[in-house]
Amino acid sequence: MMPDSKSLPTELEMSDAADVEWVKSRNDPAIWHEAAIAALAYRGDKHDFLPWLIQQPTMDRATAGWLFFWLQGSEYLQGKKDSFWAKIHDPDVVALLKDLCERSERIGFIGDRIGLDGDFEKERQACLAVIRDGLVAPCIVVPNAIIAKAFAARSGPAPYEVHDGTLLSLDFLRDSLPAIYS
């Protein structure tokens, strides 16, 4: 459920402790999804938002998929432990992926509404090929709840979008760039 847009800050920084606490307090998987992108791909995670997020029962399956596929899940399944595309250290990425895979198989995902861009399907297929070809490294838990079925396309506008690592509210974008966000 999208919260009342009048209560949304114009911008959020996942490098700011107060903003991270605000994001956590919203209990909104759509906001969490954008915050996860900002932390992993742009700002880093010095406030441990991502480990916290993985433990939230209402985290959307698309967020798990985005994290797993952005971090080259097919390589992780084969035992890769370094050179990830992330703004967090490799040992933290490995721990994050391990926790994500375990969560996938322990409780799965009750929410599957956000959807993913179609570009991630190639990585999902690569993960399935690793499994099919028997290339999964020992001690790796396969995240079937994430990769077993295709993702729907992104559905509707999110309350925030990530721009250069900053979460900008959709209302702010509509006001600032009406030609694009009408």
Structurally, the number of domains stands at 1
Along the chain, the helix and strand elements come as EHHHHHHHHEEH
Kindly report how far apart the N and C termini lie.
Answer: 21 Å
What is the helix content?
40-55%
Estimated structural class:
mainly alpha
By DSSP, the count of extended strands is 3
Uncertain regions spanning at least 5 consecutive residues: 1-5
Specify the biggest β-sheet: 3 strands, antiparallel
In angstroms, what is the radius of gyration?
A: 16 Å
Strand content: 5-15%
Q: How confident overall, as mean pLDDT?
A: 91
What can you see in these coordinates?
With 182 residues, the protein is mainly alpha-helical. The protein has one domain (14-157). Helix content is 47%, strand content 6%. The protein contains 9 helices and 3 strands, in the order βααααααααββα. The chain has helices at residues 17-25, 29-43, 49-54, 61-70, 73-77, 90-106, 121-132, 144-147, 170-176, and strands at 11-13, 160-163, 166-169. It has a 3-stranded antiparallel β-sheet with strand order 1-3-2. 35% of the residues are buried. Mean pLDDT is 91; it is low at 1-5.
Topology of helices and strands:
Layout: E1 11-13, H1 17-25, H2 29-43, H3 49-54, H4 61-70, H5 73-77, H6 90-106, H7 121-132, H8 144-147, E2 160-163, E3 166-169, H9 170-176
Antiparallel strand pairs: 1-3, 2-3
Can you give me a brief rundown of this structure?
The protein is mainly alpha-helical and 182 residues long.
Characteristics of this structure?
6% strand, disordered N terminus, 9 helices, globular, DUF4274 domain-containing protein, mainly alpha, 3-stranded antiparallel sheet, 47% helix, 182 residues
